[in-house]
């Protein structure tokens, strides 16, 4: 008889403990178990570990790069390169108002000229490093050479299929549509190959 009381008492205790555990889990799941909470937690973890892409989700973003898909007057539709692979897919295509944008043509420098600029920069950097007693300071006048020349251009210099960086004056991280202040168009020199020799 006493063993039955112990068995029944033990069984009741286990059932009460299991019930309390399930009620606690349900409360926890209902407050945090939404898809969005899981998504946000996954994004945060990816950013913390460095796998989640470039910039934090709350950082200001004033430029976006992409391929011009369509041009309708001064309105461009652009397929952008997201800075974060988990960002809103709706923002992969942006509508950009170019009515007040300054257009700049970025033309690749001649490789020999650019290499000379790099060599001069590297030499100056080496000299500065050797002459500084305090290695934590750097001459602010030393600027890394730009691989492009910046030339003025006009809106009609931009065509569908061009790679363009659009710069805004406000944060455009979550803006599907925005007004561009500047558009930097990449122009690559055309390569000319000699005609094949006739045999």
Description:
The protein is built from three helices and eight strands, in the order ααββββαββββ. It has an eight-stranded mixed beta sheet with strand order 5-4-8-6-1-2-3-7, with no helix packed on it. It has helices spanning 2-32, 35-49, 111-131, and strands at residues 63-72, 75-80, 93-97, 102-108, 148-153, 163-167, 177-179, 182-187. It folds into two domains: 2-46; 57-109 and 146-187, OB fold (Dihydrolipoamide Acetyltransferase, E2P) (Beta Barrel). The longest helix is centred in the first third of the chain and has 31 residues, at 2-32. With 199 residues, it is of the alpha+beta class. The radius of gyration is 30 Å and the shape is extended. Helices cover 34% and strands 24% of the residues.
SSE run: HHEEEEHEEEE
Total strands: 8
Distance N terminus to C terminus?
110 Å
Specify the helix fraction band. Answer: 25-40%
The helix-and-strand class reads alpha+beta
Q: What is the name of the CATH class of the largest domain?
A: Mainly Beta
The general outline is: extended
Provide the β-strand percentage band. 15-25%
Determine the mean pLDDT: 78
Largest sheet: 8 strands, mixed
Number of helices: 3
Please name the CATH topology of the largest domain. OB fold (Dihydrolipoamide Acetyltransferase, E2P)
For the largest sheet, list the strands in their spatial order.
5-4-8-6-1-2-3-7
* Count of discrete domains: 2
- The CATH level-2 architecture of the largest domain is identified as Beta Barrel
Which parts are unreliable, with pLDDT below 50 for 5 consecutive residues or more?
A: none
Radius of gyration: 30 Å
